[in-house]
Design brief:
Layout: H1 18-35, H2 38-49, H3 52-68, H4 77-103, E1 120-121, H5 131-134, H6 140-147, H7 151-162, H8 167-174, H9 178-195, H10 203-219, H11 222-228, E2 229-237, E3 240-243, H12 245-252, H13 256-259, E4 262-267, E5 270-277, E6 280-290, E7 293-300, H14 303-307
Parallel strand pairs: 2-7
Antiparallel strand pairs: 1-4, 2-3, 4-5, 5-6, 6-7
Helix pairs in contact: 2-3, 2-4, 3-4, 4-7, 4-8, 6-9, 7-9, 8-9, 10-11, 11-12
Length: about 325
């Protein structure tokens, strides 16, 4: 998607006659107002979809809907745009879910989880342009759990809990009652609390624990691996889910070779590593560290998702 909303102006906004000039002025003012909300809308869409490309598509579709609507009577443009992008994302999630169900054989059981696009940052800190995407502690662990929710649950939780949209407005988007929307958000909240623990706040402590994990993996030290893992640790990827310190440590020993070339990084704002081979990412791991032990390891190893990542940001 282009960074400029102006590229998709309605045709009558580009005419050369007097009326067209007035229309151009109006659309430019509307576009400027839209741009002031773009970062928030992209943040909503990223939480809803977990994909940068799809989030940009949703924001662009929101602009098109605004440019074709009569916005003169909209008192709270930011709120209006938030609900519109939420509705766009809801439709995209429902379409994605339908396609996925068609692709899977009826008897097949999906073993892994759909991983979101990770936000990579150097150890020096999150880029200012990434701050809106990562506000509200939107770590990879949270996004992974959001992927397991129904589209309606995800919308209710994201809009209400993360963006303070009233349930009355969410109900309008869903075509349900406010009480039903509240129940959906409550159900989603319980899933999030159970599957996305909040990482320790101290970045230095997070890094120390992750470095200990990498050292143990490089040395093939099984006992050291178990010691740094929470007893109920969960490792998740699109290839499968492994639970328990012993099981995860057994798999982590196979990570020894890659541990030698893993680069430290922030992944969605928490301690992580990026495995870079010949200048290209071969894997991304985000670690949720709770009370000094690794509670969750989220692994992105899908080649298509890795291919679009820019690892040059790690050199900044």
């Amino acid at each position: 998607m282009s960074d400029s909303a102006h590229e998709d102006f309605p045709k009558d906004a580009r005419t050369a006659d007097g009326g067209g000039a007035h229309a151009q002025d109006g659309i430019e003012v509307l576009a400027a107002r839209f741009e002031s909300h773009r970062s928030r809308l992209r943040a909503v869409a990223y939480r809803m979809l977990g994909s940068f490309a799809e989030a940009d598509d949703a924001v662009q579709e929101t602009w098109l809907k605004l440019s074709r609507a009569d916005a003169s009577g909209v008192g709270n443009l930011g709120g209006w745009l938030t609900t519109v992008v939420g509705r766009v994302c809801l439709d995209m999630l429902r379409s994605r879910r339908a396609r996925r169900e068609e692709q899977l054989e009826p008897a097949a059981e999906w073993q892994g989880v759909r991983m979101p696009d990770p936000v990579l940052s150097p150890l020096s800190g999150v880029d200012p342009e990434q701050e809106a995407l990562l506000a509200d502690s939107v770590g990879l662990a949270l996004l992974v759990v959001l992927e397991t929710l129904t589209p309606a649950e995800r919308l209710s939780f994201v809009l209400h809990d993360l963006f303070a949209v009233p349930f009355d407005e969410i109900a309008t988007v869903l075509g349900r009652t406010p009480a039903a929307s509240r129940q959906l958000a409550s159900r989603a909240r319980r899933r999030v609390q159970g599957g996305a623990p909040v990482s320790d706040a101290d970045p230095a402590q997070q890094r120390e624990v992750v470095d200990a994990f990498l050292a143990a993996a490089r040395d093939g030290d099984f006992e050291a691996l178990v010691a740094v893992l929470d007893p109920d640790v969960v490792a998740r990827s699109e290839r499968g889910v492994t639970a328990g310190a012993v099981a995860v440590a057994s798999n982590a020993s196979s990570f020894a070779r890659l541990a030698h070339i893993a680069r430290p990084a922030l992944v969605n704002g928490v301690a992580g590593v990026v495995v870079v081979v010949d200048g290209h990412p071969a894997g991304v791991l985000a670690f949720t560290v709770v009370h000094g032990r690794i509670a969750v390891i989220d692994i992105v190893n899908d080649p298509e998702r890795l291919a679009v990542l820019d690892v040059t940001v790690l050199d900044r």
